[in-house]
Amino acid sequence: MTRRHQARAARIERIIEYRRRLTEQAQQRLAEESRAASAAEEALARLRQSRRELAEGLERLASTPVDPAVLEAGELYQRWLAHRAREQESLLDVARQREEQARELLVAQQREQRKLEKVQERWQAESNREARRHEDLQLDEAALSRYCLERHPEGAGR
């Protein structure tokens, strides 16, 4: 392999290694965004569960004699939980969008890495064919020289 081919091979390998690092970073980002989305889903689920439990508790209290201030405080807390749930839904939407963007970035990075790896494979195959061709030419020249020497031994002295 010539120096030029070695330099090209090293350059392609560095580029592929760089793409591998980008792919790994994209995988890490996707994992982080997935964890954030899961945490937002869990928080929303807890808020919804709290709202259901509060609604059930207020419903039970409504049929019994209770201080109106307690019912009012419960309803106020219920409205606050509803507001927090809406905020959490918004946060969850943002987290899901970020997760989807991270997934798209990962797919793009993987696609680019595969393209470069295919280019490297093609280039290596071409380089191997060229080296074999060069070797075949050298062998042919050696065989021709030998043939000429065997055929015309008197030409060897000149």
What does this structure look like?
The protein contains two helices and no strands. The chain has one domain: Helix Hairpins. The protein is mainly alpha-helical.
Task: Map the helices and strands.
Elements: H1 3-62, H2 68-151
Helix pairs in contact: 1-2
Keywords:
158 residues, mainly alpha, Helix Hairpins, 2 helices, 0% strand, rod-shaped
**Radius of gyration over alpha carbons?**
36 Å
State the distance separating the first and last CA atoms. 35 Å
CATH class designation: Mainly Alpha
CATH topology: Helix Hairpins
Main beta-sheet strand count, sense and barrel state: none
Q: How many beta-strand elements?
A: 0
CATH architecture: Orthogonal Bundle
**Tally of separate domains:** 1
Query: Tally the helices: what do you get?
Result: 2
Strand content: under 5%
Average pLDDT score? 89
**Percent helix:** over 70%
Contiguous uncertain segments of 5+ residues:
none
Query: How do the helices and strands follow one another from N- to C-terminus?
Result: HH
- Helix/strand-derived category reads mainly alpha
Shape: rod-shaped
